[in-house]
Write a structure and sequence with these properties.
The structure is a single chain. By secondary structure, the chain is mostly helical. It has one domain (2-151): Four Helix Bundle (Hemerythrin (Met), subunit A), CATH 1.20.120.1630. 70% of the residues lie in helices and 0% in strands. It is a multi-pass membrane protein. This is Steroid 5-alpha reductase C-terminal domain-containing protein.
Length: 161
């Protein structure tokens, strides 16, 4: 039963964050005649950012599913520490990927409220990571996670290995 609820919550967050909020913000942007950045180079880069961010989000979700989690929603405790793949370069590659995809959406559509959405997501993710996830992971995985924290930065590193 808990797995079904977690899956439903994950789907709700996915639909709400990736579709409902951006569409609503675009609508508000139009209603209030707020600035829209319209540049073909920006739009092209945005499309690339979105594709990479969305693909990386799906990849990291798949890594979570392989560990036995129903969804990577923060209410479900991780069963295993993931340190391979993108997690070898960032302790939070899913958040980084989501932010990159959201930034891509802003660049594609150009509505200023979408940029504020990206900035709000950065702040929210940072607070969730620092005050909820990292303390829980330290408690659950102990020295293994502490060592991982020393080797891998919170957001990203350049893969020079």
């Amino acid at each position: 039963m808990k797995s079904a609820l977690t899956l439903l919550l994950g789907l709700f967050i996915l639909v709400f964050a990736w579709f409902v909020v951006p569409v609503y913000l675009i609508r508000l942007n139009v209603i209030y005649n707020l600035p829209v950045f319209d540049n073909s180079l920006l739009r092209t880069l945005g499309f690339i950012f979105f594709l990479f961010g969305f693909s990386a989000t799906l990849y990291t979700m798949h890594q979570h599913l392989l560990t036995g989690r129903v969804t990577p929603v923060i209410i479900e405790s991780p069963k295993k520490l993931i340190s391979k793949g993108f997690y070898g370069y960032s302790r939070n590659p899913m958040y980084a990927a989501v932010l990159l995809a959201f930034l891509g959406v802003f660049m594609i559509f150009g509505h200023i409220l979408l940029l504020f959405y990206v900035l709000a997501a950065v702040v929210l993710f940072q607070l969730v990571i620092i005050y909820k996830e990292e303390p829980e992971l330290k408690k659950k995985f102990g020295k293994e996670y502490s060592g991982y924290m020393k080797k891998v930065p919170r957001w990203f590193s350049i893969p020079l290995r």
